[in-house]
Amino acid sequence: MRDIATGILTQGIAGGDIAYLEAHVAEDYIQHNPQVPDGRAGLIGFVQSLAGLEGGAEISPVRVLRDGDLVAVHSEARFGSDHVVVFDLFRFEDGMAAEHWDTVQPRPESTVSGRTMTDGPTEVTDLDQTEANRQRVMAFYQDVLIEGQIERAAEFLGPYYHQHNPQIADGLEGFTAFFTHLQDNGIPFSLTRTHRSIAEGNFVLLHSEGQISGAPHAFFDLFRVEDSRIVEHWDVVQPIPAEMAHDNGMF
Question: I need a labelling partner for 176 at 20 to 30 A (CA). Which of 26, 28, 169, 194 fits?
């Protein structure tokens, strides 16, 4: 399933290989990307539209995680002249991709931490800790981020905390300073619900929704865990549009 998921992105979508999509995507494929119509036919139509982009499209997977029938892919991509970072999540059924979610964010020229939105460790380790790490990250997300107990972050974060969100500095200090900045400047921010978790070894990915300045957003947050402490974070955040190419929503 990992190879099929990355193949859909690199060979099928970026490469324009319609036969690959016909072989690996279910006819009744459920689509949650707001710009792509439902079904395999909707995906193929979207891919065919990319042929008109100057310079075409490129998708470069960086991390791939599998959890049961779900495969998540963290990628850098280019569509024409637009450089973006993407989390794609596929649900498989009978060996075919049956459902897809994603978030897409423009790739910034620079970040506060100096790290990119995709660099850092990629190797999956500690498979025997998968469920413990899932529960640890979900507790952090619920207690600290959803319920807003920012003062409890030190209970969960490690002795170092590498940050890849372009607006947040490294470490516990950077984490708390970001939320203090939001509060001091009256910038509303809330996470309201986690829809699904994807965990494999030392990595845990959460798919959530919330609001920034009153506007609804979709979030993918990826955490790396080491010795029961969260030591690294990547994310991709996308506004939820009022109108979509289907009626499935982004979740």
Answer: 194
Query: Following DSSP, what letter does each residue of 82-143 receive, concatenated?
Result: EEEEEEEEEEEETTEEEEEEEEEEEPPS--SSS--SS-S------GGGHHHHHHHHHHHIII
- Region of 227 (left: φ > 0; alpha: ψ -120 to 50; beta: rest) is left
Whose CA is closest to 44, among 59, 58, 73, 23?
23
Would you place residue 52 in the very low, low, confident or very high pLDDT band (cuts 50, 70, 90)?
A: confident
Position 204 confidence tier, pLDDT thresholds 50, 70, 90: very high
| Long-range contacts (CB closer than 8 Å, 24 or more residues apart) made by 17-26 | 18/44, 18/47, 18/48, 21/47, 24/96, 24/97, 25/96, 25/97, 26/93, 26/94, 26/96, 26/97, 26/98
Q: 238 Cβ partners below 8 Å, 6+ apart?
A: 103, 104, 105, 217, 218, 250
Amino acid at residue number 73: V
CA distance linking residue 156 with residue 153, whole number of Å = 6
In this predicted structure, the answer to whether residue 122 has a pLDDT above a threshold of 90 is yes
